[in-house]
Each structure stands twice: as C-alpha cells, then as structure tokens.
C-alpha cells in the first residue's frame, strides 16, 4: 500500500498537481513508518528509512493555499473545505475556536438557536462519516458568559456522549484568552478560517433552503488559509 501511494504521489508531482501529491507523500511516509515499526530485519529497516528520508525531502516544501469566500456565496459546506485533507490516516483533530458557545434568541418565539454549537456538531458529523478514522477530537474554546454557560456545557456534553457511541473521544478545554481560530489534523494539515466554523449566515426560517444543507446556505465573507506543517502540535 505504501509503495502504491508513493508511486501515485510521484505521478501527481510530475503533473504539477502539488496539493494532491503532498497528501500522497505524507500518507506514504506514514505507511512506511508503520512498516519500519513492524520490521525486525535491520537491513530492511535501513532501506525503508532511506526511502522515508527521500520522501520527506520531496514533500518538505512550504504549502499555502488561500480560498476567498465572497459575501452571500454558496457551495462552501464543510465537506467542500475539509474533505480532501481528511485522508484515511487522520485519527486526531484539534479545533481551536473561542466562539463555540454563542446563542441567538428569536424575539417572537423565544426559541434558543444554538447555531455555533450546531456548526460544531455538523463538523463532528463530517468527521464521523469518514473516510478518515478519527478517534479523538480536541476542542479548545471559551466559556459563554452569564446564564448561557450552563446551556453551553450541557450541549457540549451531549455532543461528547453522542460521539462516544461512534468510538470517538471529545476532549474539551476552556480558555479566556484565546483569539485565533484554526483546525489541525494529525496528518499535518492546518486550516485557518477568519470566522472559524461560524461563517454561515442564519437561515431565513426552519424550512428555508439551506437550513439543513450547508452547501446551499449563504456565507459571510471570509478567508480560508490552508497550510501543511511537518508536525501537527497539540494546542
């Protein structure tokens, strides 16, 4: 599997499809590292390590892609932004967003609409569907102020319990000083969205197009920056 992945990476590189080739290089490196761990033959280990060194050199270039989402643009659901980076080797995800907490209250029905928490839930649903094999999600956010805190904690606990039914652990931490918003995968990809996960506009109603399908939901203007780092550090 590792050899086929590397072969595909070289082909993509030669075709100037650098983003796809980088994904394949990284996946090939990880597969070869697994082989090294399982191999007792020192000569084979040496050859595999040499190949890993060569692949690391090929994939070590700085990568940066920027996506501009215009005001009221549609077609930018979470799958559109994240799916190509969620390869099968992704097992751990870090989400840093200070606003997985804010609530909106409709003046007529007094119904609480937890849009930002729903956004996080939708993001988790995408991870559960695969093709990645996510086992752990780390969330770093801030507390909601006043009476909203208990509701925030209750919703996050419900999401945590629901994820556990799918074999996924949700670790939640709170900080009063975080400002940056970013999402990291343990295959080295990092995505920074100016508005975090909450770049969608509020739907016009419960039964309006785009309420359920985020690809059809109009967006706020924002910028998405995609980077690749050799090592993904924990936040």
Automatic annotation (TrEMBL):
Q: Where is the MIT domain?
A: 2-55
List the GO terms this entry assigns under cellular component, sorted alphabetically.
Answer: midbody
Q: Which residues form the MITD1 C-terminal phospholipase D-like domain?
A: 75-228
Family matches, as Pfam families: MIT (PF04212), MIT_C (PF16565)
Q: Which Gene3D superfamilies match?
A: MITD, C-terminal phospholipase D-like domain, Phosphotransferase system, lactose/cellobiose-type IIA subunit
Q: What GO biological process terms does the UniProt entry carry, in alphabetical order?
A: midbody abscission
UniProt xrefs under InterPro entries: MIT_dom, MIT_dom_sf, MIT_domain_contain_protein1, MITD1_C, MITD1_C_sf
SUPFAM superfamilies, A to Z: MIT domain
What is this protein's record name?
Answer: MITD1 protein
Native organism: Chaetorhynchus papuensis (pygmy drongo)
Lineage here is: Eukaryota, Metazoa, Chordata, Craniata, Vertebrata
- Per the record, the gene is Mitd1
